[in-house]
Predict the structure.
Amino acid sequence: MSGDIVILHNPVPEDAHKDEADVLIQAREISKALAELGYTPHMLPFSLSSQDCMRTLNMLVPLCVFNIVESLEGDGRLIHVACSYLDHLGIPYTGAPAEAMFLTSHKVLAKRWMLLNEIPTPEWIGHGPADPVELPLPAPCIIKALWEEASIGLDESSVVMIEGPGMLKALVEKRSEELKTQCFAERFIDGREFNLSLLATTSGVEVLPPAEIVFDFPEHKARIVDYRAKWDEASPEYKDTQRSFEFSSSDEVLLGRLKETALKCWRYFDLRGYARVDFRVDTEGLPYVLEINANPCISPDSGFVAAAHRSGITYGEVIERILADSLSAEQST
């Protein structure tokens, strides 16, 4: 097959941190894979204020846009804007539609939707008074950014024992000021952590082999994938956080339940192309969905690609299947 494919990504400044610069690694690898598949790839930073971006999209009239935009002007809450703009132009794009991208990127809205659809997720207290769930206190909690991905803002101090609502409100407000973004708190599940990646097929979706995040941490240290564990290769957190695809027969029931829940997330959140669902499992063996990532990282060293390789799927085949899902959806409309 042939045709122009635009790889749309967020602009990356020269002094960008590793989590921001990673999107360029993705874009280059996707471009290489698309070229090998016979397409003509064009890497393009997305900006509503740039005439070059708008002009290029209108001039090329691409067969499809491979959308890996993660933020706009450094703000994760604008991740859905690229999808909405492409919808406006009538250009098909890979991955989740704008509505699903917005819903999954707003962590509290996503949790509300999970609750409505009987998908287990840890109890939380958000940034406003409208949350339907009360967090029983005292309890260990983790304070997170409401919008940001890539473990931005997460470190060991994010996990705290909360004695009462006054303490919780003060800590959430303090964290919001420090990160310069809205934060919320959810009950910290002190247990095992799993990632389940999903990849579209011609007839539906395939759940790739589950991965467990194994923490080789001291007893006193909170077992979380924080910013250092994800991005700082020189840190103890990075070195002592490993991905494993090996499981014993005693995990079969749990893994089946994780797969079933991941598929439920795919259906109820209207996910497309590819996605990843992150879980924690408590000491009683009960799984809870932490987050749903509608456009997970697909760099060659990412967890998603590792799961695909575990299933015998090459990087080129991952890109081909994501693209094919977008093109088939366009043809069916």
Remarks:
- The chain has a mean pLDDT of 91.
- The domain at 4-93 is CATH 3.40.50 (Rossmann fold).
- The two ends are 21 Å apart (CA to CA).
- The CA atoms of residues 172 and 222 lie 18 Å apart.
